[in-house]
Specification:
The complex is a heterodimer. Chain A is α/β, with parallel strands linked by helices. Chain A contains 13 helices and 18 strands. In chain A, strands 1, 5, 6, 7, 8, 9, 12, 13 and 16 form a nine-stranded mixed beta sheet that branches. Chain A has a three-stranded antiparallel beta sheet with strand order 2-10-11, with no helix packed on it. In chain A, strand 3 and strand 4 form a beta hairpin. The longest helix of chain A has 26 residues. Chain A is globular and about 85 Å long. The two termini of chain A are about 40 Å apart. Chain B contains 35 helices and 20 strands. In chain B, the strands form four sheets. In chain B, strands 2, 3, 4, 5, 6, 8, 13, 14, 15 and 17 form a ten-stranded antiparallel beta sheet that branches. Chain B starts with a helix and ends with a helix. In chain B, about 50% of the residues are buried. Classes of the chains: A alpha/beta, B alpha+beta. Chains A and B meet through helix 1, helix 8 and helix 9 of A and helix 28, helix 29, helix 32, helix 33 and helix 34 of B.
Chain lengths: ~450, ~1050
Amino acid sequence: MTRRDLLSKTGMGFGLTALAPLLAENLTDPLAPKQPHFAPRAKRVLHLFMNGGPSHVDTFDPKPALKKYAGQPLPFTFRTERRTGAAFPSPFEFKPHGQSGIEISEVWPKLAEMADELCVIRSMKSEIPNHEPSLMLMNCGEVRQVRPSMGSWLTYGLGTENKNLPGFVVLCPNGLPVQGTENWRSAFLPGVYQGTRIDTAQTDIEKLIENIKPKFATLKDQRRQLDLLSQLNRRHLAERGGEDQLLESRIQSFEMAYRMQMEAEEAFDIAREPESVRKLYGEGLQARQLLIARRLLERGVRMVQIWSGAGQPWDHHDDVAGNVRRLANTFDQPIAALLKDMKQSGLLDETLIVWGGEFGRTPTVELPDNGANSGMNNGRDHNPYGFSMWVAGGGIRKGYVHGATDEFGFAAVEKVVHVHDLHATLLHLLGFDHTRFTFRYAGRDFRLTDVAGNVVKELIA
Amino acid sequence: MIRQRLSFLIAILAASAIQAAPPDFAREVRPILSDACFHCHGPDPATRMMGLRLDLKDAAFTPRKTGAPIVPGDAKASLVYQRIAHENPTRRMPPASSHKTLTPKQIATIKAWIDAGAPWKEHWAFVPPSKPKPPAVINAAWPKTPIDRFILAALEKQGLTPAPPADRRTLARRLSLDITGLPPSPQDVEAFVRDLSPNAYEKLIDKFMASPRWGEHRGRYWLDAARYADTHGLHIDNFREMWPYRDWVIRAFNRNQPFHQFTIEQLAGDLLPEPTMDQLIATGFQRCNVTTNEGGVIPEEVAAMYAKDRADTTGAVFLGLTVGCATCHDHKFDPITQKDFYSLTAFYRNTIQDPLDGNISDTPPVIVVPRDEDRPRWQQLSEHETRLIARRETVRKASLPDFGRWLDGDARRKLASPLEPADELLALNPGALTVRNQPKPFPDSEGLKTGPAHLPEIRALYFAEKSQLELENFAAFEAIRPFTVSAWIYVPKKSDNYTIVSQLDPQSRGRGLALELNGRTPALKLTTQPNKTFTIRAGPLDRLQPERWYHLAASYDGTRRLPGIDFYIDGKLIAAEGRNDRTPLPGDFKTYAPLRIASDGRGRFFNGGALADLRILTRAVTPEEVNLLRAWPVIESARTKDTKTLTEAEREAFHAWYLHREYSNFMNVSDEIRAVREERRDIAFRGAVTHVQQERTDQKPFAHVLYRGAYDQLRDKVEPAAPSALPPMPEGLPRNRLGLAQWLVSDSNPLTARVTVNRFWQEVFGTGLVRTSEDFGSQGQPPVHPELLDWLAVDFRENNWDVKRFFKQIFLSAAYRQSAAATPLKLEKDPENLLLSRGPRFRMDAEVVRDSALAVSGLLNPRIGGASVKPYQPDGLWETVAMPVSDTRFYVRDAGDKLYRRSMYTFWKRSAPPASMDIFNAPSRENCTVRRERTNTPLQALVTLNDVQFFEAARALAQAALSEAATLDKQLDHMTTRVLARLFDLKERAVIKKAHADFLAQYKANPAQAKDAINVGESAPDPTLDPAQLAALTMVANSILNLDEAVNK
């Protein structure tokens, strides 16, 4: 009898056994902290999503060969969204940094000082040269069908350590990225695991979280009201024999709501940081986003996802030289500060920080076309065949470069890491066997990694 | 002997130890038999050979002359195995003529299965239910209905006793919430408490069921299953006018439409003989799926997606099967093959619906739904129009003698124009241009040639590369003036996009009008000032073929509204898209830019195309007149021919001209018809539009198996069919949606009745007898009470699928009437109340929570049906998710009593469902949902505590109590009888009074805070009441509304 037969005979698919305790807990409080499959190396995730697809050959993947071929067609090429032409060498210089000697582009002067904290993956691979499916793959592990996002999976699997705050918080200023809320959807997982998106362009707490403040009563009056409610509910509970989990959890939920009214405001208020810390992070929107993220993470939020901005800021079909430098500049100091800050406090040891976009860009120049980059000859097209990401934090191999793209940076060729592999590895560090971390829906078990993914052992310290 | 037997046993044991478990019949064996054998040895008698069936156990095991087809435990003795493994290819089954072969592995599977004893087990849900006898029980006094005997027998088995009956107030509240979705009025509760007649309880059920709230409440559940919403769902997520379908659902439940008819009308109302308007509206069920119009999407892919959604929905709602699992491969667990899945989609792919929704509110096919008060007149007019058309036909025939004389006369030789010359703005033919009946010099154009047209005698204008005609100095089109453009056109092959006629002003962002071919589909584009472009285009089935002549006409009635535009191809009025927006055009498209023939002035031409008899008229012509315009070249070429030599077509053309222009009897009837049509148009204008389903008539339903579900990986072509593991569709049923619907509700279908009664059960008890109400397959949960489920299903079907009767039967049961209180023993043995050891109690759905607050406070607007409303919602919720061009980007809150409609009427934008309902687990309505999650979160508490809607309701409730009663006790009574259907006891009163005194002191000391607490929402507080008193009682009311008891059933 095969394992499969055994499972089907006993009426169980993979995973149902594994997650039975999780499900049982869910009945009472879906956000209660839960233990993963095995001892985790990290407890939380901060995903810095460079939406639009940052150019790897201008940031973390130096390709001197492009200089040799400058202006000439490459010996091979791949089909991307639009037509591209000759080799387009990076306008930026790369230099080795730190003891590890990781080569990093000049656009990241401050981040480069933290090179020894980074694990740079230069052999990332996605599937389709369009934003929408690639965003879905990076966030939900599937290009077409409706699947839960990684943050939803994590809050489902681990609960949250701070019940005064949502377990999965998404920070995106001034609107939504391409594909909108689908990037942090819970799909068939219970709605409580959906990402709570906060518009970090807003500084007003009441717009950040609905009904978070009692508008018609003072907190003092509301406390009095909740006491009354609690007394009446407890009387009702006693009449019902004293045992009613749902009633108990309702009483708790009101208390939690009350607490959220106080803590959420505090958590999002970076003015409470000492000036030295604020100085370290610097000025601007990204500095504020990253500082909010750190405050949320240290308060036990399970996953924070930061987006560069609405739309697709890193989609540089033209003026790579100007755009990459400009955008990197908004992130360079805040990210370096965050790494330093979190390392100092020890938070970095139990947090995974992931940096990257939905794909990379072509090493060849995008040919000018009507519309998008008309008249320009200085941009790069989408490239899912090979790109770079980096990870830092708990359990990750520090100061390490993994894999490589070809001579020109078009396609990943060495130790290729598919998005599914990255997911599998992150889940592993968080204590999950990605093949057993499942949810039963519409007749089958689903996972973040679908039916693929391998843990990349070399990425693990 | 003994030794022999022993060794035999050992051999068996050894064999079974080596061999894995026998192949699973349902999953592994049946699909092989089904695929390779059932065609000739299966359910279909028409193709059955040798009278042998292998789809039924008895038939397959019964010995025949030559042996038994299957001898359990002995494959070698089984005819089936002998024949599939036969050495002689001519004897081997399946025969070569069937083009089917079995792989060695499949043959081995069959052998292993037979050798293992041929365990023939069907999944329970596929075995047709029979009506079991209710079991015997010990406590014979308890059961009130057959249902109770099933429940009690199981409880007794577990050593449990039923809970005592709930008190009358609790029962009244439970019943009211289950039947109407609203708490009962204190009067109803009191009357019931005092009614000592033996059938008091039944009378209360009947009273609640007679309320139209019944249809709203039952309908609300159905709308989750139907995935009803007010936007298209994907990408731009624009408004979709669909609410008449919601009204239909409410009406259907209120008139207690039997569920089988309810099913048939929604799946195939359009295919019923002479369908009524309601039956067409019902087909909106199939149009509730999410659609898209995203640029760059591939129509075939989207069409495949819609068909999949409809098949998935059919699976979940009627069959309780996750058929979608078979999109990419055969279902892993249930006997649903990939072929089965695509055979199911075939029913839904034969639609005239364009895969792209056009971002418009009325993506065809749609129908006009007149206002209720207009409906009789609408019907009358439609009948009148039919009569008039018949009369016109009589008149036409009667005209023949007069026509004959006219034809012989001289008048016809002098005919100069198809319609009144006074109505003609422009006429263009090779070498001849007249504007307002004045001949004009023919404008110069390089590359213009004359050539043959659709008639040998007629010449046409041919446009070479980038050639065009430019006519200056007059405005041909204006928003307040009617017009008609008519021409014969020749469609070239070169590309798909052409401009035929245009008058566009480059100085004002292209303001003006253009008649174009977009993707060879005729389209009329209006660009107004302020800048907005409206495109009215023919449907996908009206794509023109290249290298052919067509007559094209577009008319506009000058009413500044898009429905005033009609499109004709070859004289036939076509269902154009994009013309149902009834709001007045925001500006005008009039311009004095040059009128261009065969160019839009912006680089788009009619390269290689040709035109003949182009006419622009200054009025909107009738369909009949369009035919006259179409026929005019025939008349022109035959004008001077001798009567005897006229062809039939020529005679007909003359006849048409004669009738329209000379024969007053005919002209009078035509005028009457025009008047009727105008009135119908006015009624349509006032009414609504709803999306319906419409079958293609030019082909039979089919689909292709899509390899791995990819729209472009077409494999075998399949016909519509029921899933092969279920009883086949009877011979007599049509192979279309109607047949599918009839099959779903046929007596032989083992699933539909079970799945339906289970969902109804779930509505009342919170959990179905099968917990996974969407999945009755082998991966779903088996039923808790299989016999009860079967009994209910058969009983429902036997009683004509009577929904009200079914629910009443549940409400009458002793099981339903139990108190909800648990005991430690029950919590241990029946923790989730699956055995019903106590009455149902659970947190009410989002809509019921909000509706209850509105009802008890007196704010509820009782209006039933109609367009969706936009109640309170935090600012900016839509903006953050909507695309900039979406017409549902900004949430414009309604005012006045629209704020207080029942929640089922709240506008449902799929990409941003109503936030306060979303928090209470309402689905997004992007997919069919037959079971909601029921979470319990702090965010819910924030809504009921702080949300303006709930706080306003608390204020209104307190205000009513203060106005009505003088003492705090009486005020509390006012509130609790409404919210909880009971009075507080002394201890509760003591707790409340203490809190109330604190609130009152607080508000008396802080008048500003009192003002904050009572000035909530749009309704104003009663100025005659003391603000501190009102504020204090408002806080108490808010607490009562937030009680666990208040949000639970």
